[in-house]
Amino acid sequence: MADARRTPVACGVDVGSTNVKVVVLDRDGRVLARASSPTPRDTSGLSVESLALVDLVERLVLKVCGDVHEVHAVCTVGMGEDGMLLDADLVPLSSALSWFDPRRQGVVRTLRARLDDDQAFDAADDAARTMVGWAWAREQPGAEAGVAWVAVADLVAVRWTGRPFLSDTLASRTGAWRASSRTWAPGRVAASLGPVDLLPAVLPAGDVVGRLRSSRLRAAGAVADGAVVVAGGHDHPVGGWAVDRLLPGSVLDSMGTAEVVVAQSRLPPPLVHPDVDVAPGIRSTGTTVLRVVELARNAAWAAQDPDVARWMTALVEGTARPEPVLESGYFRPGGRGGRPPSYRVDAPRAPYARASAVLGALACAGRTAVDAVSGDVGGPPRVRAAGGWSRSPGWMEIKQAVNRHRSDALVEPEVTAVGAACLAALAVGWDPDPAVALGEPGTA
Fold this sequence. Notes:
Keywords: Carbohydrate metabolism, Kinase, Transferase, Xylose metabolism
Radius of gyration: 21 Å
Protein name: FGGY family carbohydrate kinase
Pfam families: FGGY_N
GO molecular function, one term: kinase activity
Structural class: alpha/beta
Family: Belongs to the FGGY kinase family.
């Protein structure tokens, strides 16, 4: 039963590598409140503190609801590869091996020796894949008590509903699942995680998982009696889906820790996909198509030279103009599997030129990703940019200088959290306007 004193809202939760974001929107799609806080991590800064995460999300939900809003549906999304084994009481048995944890390099080398196939899966094999985390978790003390593997992005939803599950957009990040047949590769699961029954049900993004059972939120009046939890999963596909609702056939270029280019294709998931990663389409029979490009790590590597760092800052902020070396290839970005960045042997030594070459190479890598994803969508790319980098005028000018397409920054700063809230709203029969939700009236 709804509380007449409170406004019914749908809630979106985005568990990011750096911050957790929560937004609530009304039936029409208006964002009514938002809050964020750093993602809780251990003292090493690598692993997410799982139970602290659940506590933080509830605190943020309470903050955005206050005394005026009441959650009727909530959807959680987040990083693609991190997860952990849970015991029978749904308590994590170990920390989650983060997708950027350097320990993954040694684990993947050992794991590859046990994989006897060379078939294509939804995401290319590298150290970031979830099955590397599976292999690591099985070696941790107490792993024998595990009854289910869940992703960090799904953990809060699992705890709220008491139902272990895995969102299908996250299953595609494991390296052992195919969206084309919605099946696991038993040999890969056995080689990394162990018994396949440790994998819970795979639910489509947008499906209702169950009732939201949080005594803390209910005692505060922040959730309706019939409030439901909705599967979301991988953050970037959900953000891309939201932008596709705004502008059908468009591409989302999300630039944060990594640059992730994503779109919704109307075609069914392919069996072979050499240039892109795929996942099931969201609320469709089509396909999510995405490509991940290293961004912040490459910039940080180049910025170890303080003179290059100063010029990069000026170029990104737009207070300096780049040297004519943007497409020179002088800088070679690092990529999948931890391949390190480098300069070509004939690269200029001047910090100004190096900074220009670094940013130009990163912009070109993003252009290649847009081209790859657009091939699955069809037609010339219509690109919307999001993430922290999209609010840097100099960086966007560099992108425009090397692109063969126009890229406009979205008004809404938390596209993924808003997309998750829209998924939650649709699950309970609401129909939020994507243009209102994303702050672009008249665009849809």
